[in-house]
Amino acid sequence: MIRRDAADGIVTLTLDRPDKANSLTPEMLEALIDGVAGAAEARLLILKGAGDRAFSAGADLEAAKAGLATSPLWERLSGAIAAHPGLSVAALNGTLAGGAFGMALACDIRVAVPHAWFFYPVAKLGFLPQPSDPARLAALIGPARAKLLLAAGARLDASEALSFGLIDRIVPDPVRAARDMAVGEPGHVAAIKAMIPGAVTR
User: Fold this and answer.
1) What is the mean pLDDT of the chain?
2) CATH number, span 2-195
3) In the β-sheet with 117-119, what is the strand arrangement from edge to edge?
4) Is the full-model pTM beyond 0.70?
């Protein structure tokens, strides 16, 4: 349920479960971790969802009830993405919710379609966010707005997410926009990224 495509130094990992809003299972998280590790030499890593409704609704409901909501797999995945030496882009084809936030927050850049929605309902569900998510979120949008999303359960549309700094651009075709960013070689991109302060890489 994770599709991998590679060409011209660009690796695209697709969450391919559109009938379930691309909700994630343990097997999908493991496949994503392996896919990110296998893209170490790529100059561009793109994460996207299948379909036009959701990037991902987060954990699969049954898997969440079985313990996935608190699994260390989420943190392993976001850590692997944050450590990717090339440029990483979350091409958000639709709604981003719950635990799926972690992989998008760990990317260097986030681009989204105009109809995307953003919410992380951990307070309502009685869970804590994954350990690195609050720091990454606060680094992007500030501590008060991070509390608005995580503790107060706010839902943002794409325009508000852009104004907050949660996403970087609103575009009709996030994958095309992401592919247009493949302009540098991995080593050069890694050197540029290392010069930019404020990144949360763990």
Assistant:
1) 93
2) 3.90.226.10
3) 54-56, 95-97, 117-119, 156-157
4) yes
